[in-house]
Design goal:
This protein is α+β, with helices and mostly antiparallel strands and about 130 residues long. It has one domain: Kinase associated protein B domain (SH3 type barrels, Roll). It is built from 2 helices and 5 strands. Strands 4-3-2-1-5 form a 5-stranded antiparallel β-sheet. α1 packs antiparallel against α2. It is globular. The N and C termini lie far apart (about 40 Å). The mean pLDDT is about 90.
Length: about 130
Amino acid sequence: MQVGQIVTAFNKTGKYIGEITAVNEDTYTVRCLAVLIHPRQGDLHHPNEVDVPFFHERKALAYREQANIPLKMVRPYEDDILDYRESLISAVQKLRNQLEAKPDDPYSVKSLQALEGVIKEYELMYSIQF
């Protein structure tokens, strides 16, 4: 892969459409253009657990934010590039729906609370369907 190529990239638990801006020894630097999967909430080292030292509110990469992504987590992308804001709204709504489908699961409840904070930070309160 090369600089300027459009790719999908997994970063932590999120998936993005982006553009390679640098090729490094072990990583590609990828500029975020759209969000395909919103990052999961909570502690990456203890997935699906509520009783952790710090339950993180995880935001998606911002539009044009760059991240160093391990080579094995980047794949070529051939389809249309989605609008960033629309893709973010769609990814948040999908995660929200998944969490709401498990109302008796403590992790889902805590994740929904964290996601609400993230939605407020994104200023998407009126764009997300409740």
